[in-house]
Design goal:
Elements (H helix, E strand, L loop, with lengths): L2 E5 L8 H14 L4 E5 L5 H5 L9 H5 L5 H4 L1 E2 L4 E3 L8 H4 L8 H6 L8 E5 L6 H9 L2 E6 L3 H4 L3 H13 L5 E7 L11 H13 L13 H5 L7 H4 L4 H13 L5
Parallel strand pairs: 1-5, 1-6, 2-4, 2-5, 6-7
Antiparallel strand pairs: 3-4
The structure holds adenosine-5'-diphosphate and magnesium ion.
Length: 253
Amino acid sequence: MSTVIVVTNQKGGVGKTTTCASLAGIFRSRDKSVLAIDMDPQGNLSFSLGADDDGFTIHDALNAKCTIEEAIKTTDMCDVITSNIVLSGSELEMTAVRREFVLKDMLKTVKAKYDFIIIDTPPALSVLTINAYTAADELIIPMTPEILSLQGLTQLKETIIAVKKYYNKKLWIRGILLTKCPSGKQLLAAEVEEMVRLVAKQFDTEVLPIKITNSVAAAEAPAHQETLNIYSPGCRAAKDYLTLTKLLYPDIF
Ligand SMILES: Nc1ncnc2c1ncn2[C@@H]1O[C@H](COP(=O)(O)OP(=O)(O)O)[C@@H](O)[C@H]1O
Ligand SMILES: [Mg+2]
């Protein structure tokens, strides 16, 4: 049975897609089967993993225009369900009863096939994010260590709490993952450290003890359609993601 990991934050540019792709690459390097699902209409994860944007997408699957199996594409890296801009109409299109459970129900038929299902989410709180949280076993919340990126997360917190209450009691918030952190021994400003701790407390979770360093290679890898562990295994961010994966998923090492 697979573990469904959702990477989320309603803010853009905090490293959600990079985290999804990095985890996918590391799981594959451990010979684990991976399905990556791109729930962001911008389609960045689809592109990063080298998936074609033709054929069926997550939008088709969510709207019963195809089966989930038909929407799965195989790339050099892993299986991927892609997305594109059409997905941005979902709020108006997904109106059925149990609209929050569409993704979860759909995944039942493929869950046995994969060790990990990784879901990337859009920088918004929408029916798509709620579907992802409802289908998830675990949430990882990336944040950048800047005061402005740590503010205005009340709505995200309330959405997660509501999903836990109404749709997914077992949802496990693994923690807040600090990304794009200064390299070397440079410390974060004390106010930032304190604020991250407070945010984590509000989310009833912890700040993960592994931070992801800012690395040029992390920004370059998507252009090569390679995951970080393949594009630049020696860079700091790649090493950080590996250490993080060992911490969160020790059983696969
Ligand atoms: N550790 C990192 N070091 C340097 N650049 C990074 C790092 N993580 C992400 N980036 C870059 O920052 C930008 C935003 O990251 P991305 O993963 O797309 O965020 P999100 O999915 O939350 O919008 C991208 O250009 C990405 O390549
Ligand atoms: Mg993204």
